[in-house]
């Protein structure tokens, strides 16, 4: 099958969609046009003409909307997004938004959350727009929570916390990390992750520059989980806090190196720690 065949199918579908005849009802012509657009979209897809494929699938979805076949329209918009994603992330997002609008109107929030998460992933990896990725993950988290999909909601919340901290929105990051930690206390499968959530939230507390609040937070984490005080993560937070309180860069550096030797620091923690280190430098330079 050739692209020329796809073009011919699109032309035929266009003509069918705009035709007017007393012996053809509108539902019939829109259904036939949608089928033709779908055929053309698949041919373009096989030819790796991703933009044309997505555009043509969207036309098929529009025909379904004219027939008030909203579920089918949503499915086709999602199909369009898969083609668009290969060449035009913005168009992929737009077609997913069309599907999500339909899904939420019909109360299908679990599906809507999944595709909102897809949008977040496009912003995260393709467009590298952390603010918009964070907003989309936040929406997905809310919708998953509303459908009692707790694990999926928490997964999205942790993404929000991660991006919020990278953007300097530490209060939002703290809220998300602490929310997931609190919900994990009585969950045997998730409890092993508590020290990681507390560590991330604690570093964000320190990064805000509010030492009193940071000390209180670490104490609260120890109260929430009696095993936390004996972990390397807790001892590291206390050591970093001590260095910040003393304005001691050398103590801070030694604490980081010591922790990193046994528990390798990832890029995210390294970035937050660099922010904290820079704040120590500013404070000590004023003395």
Automatic annotation (TrEMBL):
SUPFAM superfamilies: TPR-like (SSF48452). It is a peripheral membrane protein. It comes from the Eukaryota. CDD domains: SNAP. GO terms for biological process: intracellular protein transport; SNARE complex disassembly. Signal peptide: none annotated. One of its GO terms (molecular function) is syntaxin binding. Belongs to the SNAP family. Required for vesicular transport between the endoplasmic reticulum and the Golgi apparatus. This is Vesicular-fusion protein sec17. It comes from Entomortierella chlamydospora.
